[in-house]
Amino acid sequence: MPELPEVASLTGFLRERAVGRTILAVDVVAFQALKTFDPPVSALGGLTVTGVARHGKFLDLDCDGLHLIIHLARAGWLRWKDDLSGAKPVRPGKTPLAVRVRLAPDDEGLAPGFELTEAGTQKRLAVYVTKNPDEVPGIASLGPDPLADTFTVEVLKGIVGGNRTQIKGLLRDQKVIAGIGNAYSDEVLHAAKMSPFKIAASLTDAQVADLHEAIVATLREAVERAHGVAAKDLKAEKKSGLRVHNRAGQPCDVCGDTIREVSFADSSLQYCPTCQTGGKPLADRRLSRLLK
């Protein structure tokens, strides 16, 4: 799943390649991906991309004041194409392709653009056309951006204070903090040397400060690694920089202990027992005690 660092990289990638170009057409192949109908997606044709921004995990293309908002969800991705002039129409349901954005030809006759694809059977990729990004429910309810200057230790202290949620779930809640998903919450907690099952309200002031430092440092490092990386290479770059997530059975880079995994119905988490849980493995979330 693309998270804040990857979406930030895609934002910069599109800013360099799409801003100043005119949209020729937006072809919707997977109709369930389009979540709005007014304004119609056809209204984007003929408009110029004037800016690209990020809201949490949402991509925002400003097209002369009309916004094309993209949420890649769990299995979606953006694929840039240097020339779509020869692209053939695609029948719905026959391909992972969900949306194709075609830009007007350049001076060399090339018509670049990008395609949004989604793997798997659970189709959650979402596209919105709106005059105001805040009209998108997922954006309107976003918590603070962890890389904003306003995200301070005191802000984080206010978030965790009195909250009986386990810290892993709290970090993933977009209404609490915007942009962190399953992978980077594992990475943050490993950096903070904190159990994923620790109750947020139980954090001391020192632990809140350590968690804040881990959040900001982990995300900034990932953003810097992803900066300038081509869209097609971002997934591999993300994987190469992870220290615990999806590394179950491998040695921890910090202490050498074996990284463990806890599985859930539709996801899993990875952690290092020595670094995070006092050496105690969490065999099963439903059976393990919450570690303090």
Please explain how this structure is put together.
With 292 residues, this protein is an alpha+beta fold. It has two domains: 4-140, Alpha-Beta Barrel (N-terminal domain of MutM-like DNA repair proteins), CATH 3.20.190.10; 153-276, Helicase, Ruva Protein, domain 3 (Orthogonal Bundle). It is 26% helix and 20% strand. The chain has eight helices and ten strands. The chain has helices spanning 4-18, 137-140, 153-160, 167-172, 182-191, 205-226, 234-241, 273-276; strands spanning 23-28, 49-55, 58-63, 66-71, 76-81, 97-103, 113-118, 126-130, 260-263, 268-271. Strands 1-6-7-5 form a four-stranded antiparallel sheet, with no helix packed on it. It has a four-stranded antiparallel sheet with strand order 2-3-4-8, with helices on one face. Helix 1 (4-18) packs parallel to helix 6 (205-226) and helix 3 packs across helix 6. The radius of gyration is 21 Å and the shape is elongated. 38% of the residues are buried. Residues 285-292 have low confidence and may be disordered. Belongs to the FPG family. This is Formamidopyrimidine-DNA glycosylase.
